[in-house]
Amino acid sequence: MRIIRLTVQNIRVHDTKTLDFVTNPTLITGANGSGKTSLIEAIYIALRGKSFRGSDLAVCRYGTDFYRIMLETDIFTYRVQYGTVGARKTRQFIIDDKKYARLPYKLKYPIVLFEPEDLRIINGSPQRRRQLVDTLIQQYDPHYSSQLSRYERALQQRNKLLKDPSVTRDVLFPWDVLLSDYGAAIIAKRQAVAAIFHERITALYRQIAHNDDSVSIAYSHNDTVTSQQLLRQYEEKFDYDRAAGATSAGPHRHDIHIIFNHVPAIQAASRGECRTIVLAMKFIEAEYIEQQSGMPPIILLDDVFGELDEQRQHALLAEFRENQVVMTSTVDVH
Ligand SMILES: Nc1ncnc2c1ncn2[C@@H]1O[C@H](COP(=O)(O)OP(=O)(O)OP(=O)(O)O)[C@@H](O)[C@H]1O
Q1: For residues 242 and 123, what is the distance between their CA atoms, to the nearest angstrom?
Q2: N or C end of the chain, less CB within 10 A?
Q3: Which domains does the chain have, with CATH numbers?
Q4: Where do the annotations place ATP binding (predicted)?
Q5: 269 belongs to an annotated ligand binding site
Q6: What residue's CA is closest to ligand 1, atom 30?
Q7: ipTM beyond 0.90?
Q8: Which of 286, 278, 121, 299 is nearest to 209 (CA)?
Q9: Using a 6 Å CB cutoff, which residues line ligand 1?
Q10: Would you say 294 is a known binding-site residue?
């Protein structure tokens, strides 16, 4: 699929704006604060169903309470309308004249987003790394989003019950069962993706950096976890969890370890090396999504291209020569 034209209304700093995608890569340039990321965000909302950096209301231009996006591609025209319908704020997707309250899974199109914040994959919290893997799986697995949100809802309920000092094991049991069923499925899918990262990362790192450094990636819990084992963990931690008022076991506490030359990357890798690890991970993300979904993801490079040295810029464009690439920069890049 190719994006041909983007038109937005009331998207952050933009009143109305139209952008034609004539070349590939398409470069969006402008001063800081001119609204480049907002255009990337609009593409993301149209193709993935929600923003990567804020609520719908935050997306509306200050002083307004609605926005519109029209993304014309060579296959569909995606329209997104956020605003007031009756007494409620709603978002509506209109794709080739059919209306949807949520963007249907089969109309979502895969995207790999590179943004300056990506270095947090290395130096941020475990949540940031879980998010990377979860967002990746969601792009090709139609069941994963609902497994995650059901796990999250059960977790919130269990944590709420744990705040009550009189809570018993029996009261928690139905939630433990739900958590262990969804949790085991989530862990297995994350482990599979971590294994793919591990398999490819060193070769890709060396291809970009032209040296012999090695990188390894591992899910924090390597063994296969069945739902029965997970259920036992929730039950065994009952006293601890009640004292803490929160659930201490399960995939919401897991991490993805990134090791650079046998030492955790956060301790050992320089900023440039971290950037290269992240770049290699993004390459794997794009490759794997295409392999699993059969669709070459659209690559959105927000303000990152200019930060790479020439060698890495070449590696990036060579890797994505078959993909549509949209990039933003404050300066012209050649
Ligand atoms: N809801 C909103 N309404 C109006 N302006 C907003 C809204 N949200 C953010 N802004 C402003 O919009 C501007 C554009 O932000 P955006 O991140 O798209 O710019 P950018 O061109 O990517 O900037 P940079 O080069 O600094 O990354 C910023 O000045 C921001 O403060």
Answers
A1: 31
A2: C
A3: 1-109+296-334 (3.40.50.300), 121-294 (1.20.1050.90)
A4: 30-37
A5: no
A6: 33
A7: yes
A8: 278
A9: 12-13, 30, 32-38, 58, 60-62, 303, 330
A10: no
